[in-house]
Amino acid sequence: MKNLVRTGLIWSSLTLAIMVAAIIYAWISLPRGEQIPVHWNFAGEADRFAGFAEAMWIVALPAGIAVLTSILLAVIPFVTPRRENFMKSSRAYLAAWIGSNILIAGVTLLVVRSMLVRSEDTT
Q1: Do residues 93 and 41 lie in contact, with contact meaning Cβ atoms separated by under 8 Å?
Q2: Distance from the Cα of residue 114 to its chain's centroid
Q3: Which of 100, 121, 111 shows the shortest CA–CA distance to 58?
Q4: What is the pLDDT of residues 28-69, one digit of tens each?
Q5: Where are the chain's structural domains?
């Protein structure tokens, strides 16, 4: 069980490092004093804009969610009442843990990229 949690935390740390790098890149690259696109419609057109501070909160929120999710997923194996059943599904549990973190990191990267590309288009 400790290997399961260790593996999950290693992957969580890697994906969190990617998200932090994206947040730092956004902090450096996003324009201040201008409206930054923060929401897009199905056609990919920006339909909501925000200032720098709100845009940074929107970029940082998924990283916070990933941290809270990882903490919860690291604790669950130790408090679950049916450890035998849990251990039978540990591979699926780990796959869901890693997959959710990769998905959150991917969404963060796409949001930062879209903000940067759309910000350049509007200036």
Answers
A1: no
A2: 15
A3: 111
A4: 999 888 899 988 889 888 889 999 999 999 999 999 999 999
A5: 2-51+59-122
Is-contact 112 59, C-beta < 8 A? Answer: yes
The amino acid occupying position 9 is L
State the Cα–Cα distance between residues 83 and 85, nearest whole angstrom: 5
HEC readout, the chain: CHHHHHHHHHHHHHHHHHHHHHHHHHHHHCCCCCCEEEEECCCCCEEEEECHHHHHHHHHHHHHHHHHHHHHHHHHHHHCCCHHHHHHCHHHHHHHHHHHHHHHHHHHHHHHHHHHHHHHHHC
**pTM of the full structure:** 0.85
Give the model's pLDDT for residue 98: 96
Report the distance separating Cα 29 and Cα 40, nearest Å. Answer: 20
Residue 98 tokens, joined: 């890693």
Per the CB < 8 A criterion, the answer to whether 90 and 73 are in contact is no
